[in-house]
Please model this.
Amino acid sequence: MFGGKSAEREISLKSGSRVLAALLRQGVDAHAFDPAERKIDELSAFDRVFIMLHGRYGEDGTIQGVLELMGIPYTGSGVMASAVGMDKWRTKLLWRSVGLSIPEFVMLNAESDFAAVERQLGLPLFVKPACEGSSIGVTKVRESGALRAAYQEAAKYDFLVMAERGILGGEYTVSIIGEGASMQTLPTIKIEPATEFYDYDAKYFRDDTVYRCPCDLPESRELELRAQALEAFRVLGCRGWGRVDYLMDEQGNAYFLEVNTSPGMTDHSLVPMAARVAGISYDELVMRVLALATLG
Model:
């Protein structure tokens, strides 16, 4: 299932077409299904669903709830974990409640004291819609007085908008696959964009983004943070597969940023990259994820 109606439709189409090709190469009787173009009740003809929808209506628990009602097993996290994971605000609240470090943030609205928020968080800071992915609507605020305009841009995509302290020592991601006790992390990737930050173009279209895997962390530190990423994944109730992102400050302190419960599978995507370093081919990765399709 790919395409959909979210702002990430373009990337979902890229991810889904590659996954479909991999399934067909492996002899699976697989078919494309775009919920933006077909009626949901047509899903009753299928045994299981490989979800390659990104963003709203596909990654936020919506389609997961439909599939639960229809009794069709699906890949990835369930209804609750998908809904919470799509919401960066509530994700951060849960992580903070169990002692995981997160960047300091402030929720914004049209009546916010933007100058006071700039003073509190310092510059640069990032403004983002709480319930969008792929860096859509995200602005890096570097100059005093620019926060209001950044809020207005993010508010085009979501009524929940957050301002977040800039953590500038490096961006890392940990991919996770498995179920229950067999859940495992894949090698950490350090992301070094050539752009101002890891924005939409840097993620999906530019060829000058540098991905370091193995990353530059000492092995003991990397394994420690992989274990914390796994805890962050489990705290939200996630399952099957996904990705947890964190930032590092200049002193080497890690701050967990967000979870992705329906990661990209394009030729620029991070989970296939980490899997390849771990000795798992793209097709094998796809089949592993498919095998984890479940209900409940």
